[in-house]
Amino acid sequence: MEFQPVYFAFGLTLFAGLSTGIGSAVAFFSKRTNTKFLAGALGFSAGVMIYVSLVEIFPKAKDALSAALGETEGYWVTTLAFFGGLAFIALIDRLVPSFENPHEPRSVEDLKPAADDKKNKTLLRMGLFSALAIAIHNFPEGLATFTAALTDPALGISIAVAIAIHNIPEGIAVSVPIYYATGNKRKAFFFSFLSGLAEPVGALVGFFILMPFMNEIVFGILFASVAGIMVFISLDELLPTAEKYGEHHVAIYGLIAGMVIMAISLLFFA
Fold it and tell me: How does DSSP classify residue 54?
């Protein structure tokens, strides 16, 4: 395998993961939460991920597995791998305590400096648990971005951008509580970036563990699982979070725009 595509894929994964830092910047340099922007961006990201998962990634997985196993058996394995990906990310999601759920939207103006040590400790715990939870979520996302970019650079760029957008509110969820608990912006930025580094770690694990065994069957199962992971992220995290920002129609318009732009980009690169 050539290293140039590997570097490109890893660079995309690193970009997507470290976009949690953009969330930190939004939190620290915005006087108020732009709910329309966040709702629209999250909807857009969900549209890209749903469309590309069902229209591009799932069929590619099916083609690879059908070529290796036959049409009927290949379709069965593709379907099972897709729902296996859904089950895998759902299991990870169940491991995250609801109180520290990083996908619960938080407004910049609602989080004020704590007046007592007990409140400070609660905010710090919230931020640190959010960082850990996001890191756990980001691991399979990194594997998804890396695998897609290795297979199809244009597809990898689309997925990386979608995941980067989805990481912005996660960066807010980590950095704001830590900042208000400690008064230290550097520490808040550090933990925000650290949570995003789980994505390139996921890419490295995928490269060193899976790539030596890569064939049509492994590729097909992995790609179908990635499709399931991204659909779950869209339906369980992105759209509900966009709705909680109180901008229903903006989120739906963003969803449709994401699908349209993804469809057009696939047509141009077909």
Answer: I
Domain range enclosing 190: 3-268
Q: Which of 78, 39, 76 shows the shortest CA–CA distance to 60? A: 78
Structural domains counted in the chain: 1
Helix 58-69 with 71-94: angle, nearest 10 deg? 130
Closest to 149 in 3D by CA, of 137, 138, 161: 161
Residue 200's contacts (CB-CB under 8 Å, 6 or more residues apart) are 10, 13, 14, 17, 142
Q: Where are the alpha helices (DSSP H) in 53-206?
A: 58-69, 71-94, 117-151, 153-182, 185-196, 198-205
- The per-residue pLDDT for range 116-143, each reduced to its tens digit, is 555 566 666 766 766 776 777 677 778 7
Confidence of residue 99 (pLDDT cuts 50, 70, 90): very low
The structure's pTM equals 0.73
Which helix or strand (DSSP H or E) is residue 268 part of? helix 248-268
203 contacts 73 by C-beta, under 8 angstroms: no
The CA distance from 164 to 24, in Å, is 13
